[in-house]
Specification:
This protein has 252 residues and is of the alpha/beta class. The protein has nine helices and seven strands, in the order αβαβαβαβαβαβαααβ. Strand 1 (13-17), helix 2 (22-33) and strand 2 form a beta-alpha-beta unit.
Length: 252
Amino acid sequence: MSRTDMFSLTGRVAVVTGASSGLGRAAAHFLVQAGAQVVGLARRAEALEQWSAEAGGETAALAADLAAESDMAALAGRIADPFGPPDILVNAAGLNLRQSADQVTPEGWAQTISLNLSVPFFLAQALVPAMRERGWGRIINFASLQSRRAFTNGIAYGASKGGVEQMTRAMAEAWSKDGINANALAPGFFPTELTGPVFADAEVSARHAASTCIGRNGEMADIKGPLLFLASDASVYVTGQLLFVDGGYTAK
């Protein structure tokens, strides 16, 4: 297999949650560029349709509120309608309410844990049987710097993302023997809706850039290589891992 073929996703079907904006949208774009047929899933139908129109390739937009979904088997069927059951699941949808420990409510806690941790597991669980039948699958969860580090007003978000790291290892233990590798990407500070408050404050943004080894915050193109590595045959012997894409933020 050539180096090019190793990273090719031609013939693969992928689904990306949170595909209407931010890193989810970028991930969906990059998978299309690599040859995959991609289902973008998010709440905002108009934004999804715009992504699909701009992405090129073979795409489908599926509007769904993951926080309100109670029947993941039915959702898995809807995901499979355009191109067949997916080979690749990218769990990029997320929520950060940015509440201090004293402000966190049971409702906010439950909402954060549900979307960031529970939904990725139960969606994967619903999609795994078809991957198992083919003997090939890739699950890519989105973790965070807060999987390992504490940030102000991030206790619920950090708890959920710490859980994503451990869940990824447990997914690998459960399913990799069937050819389904599970890994996680942990982005640093990228300009997304979730990090809007950071980039709106030039001083805060500069402080985070200075905290990296490279000396800048992330750009969308920085996620492409790591994503395609974990989504393709290039990562055939890599599973249960958390890959920080943070410019060396966690190295300092």
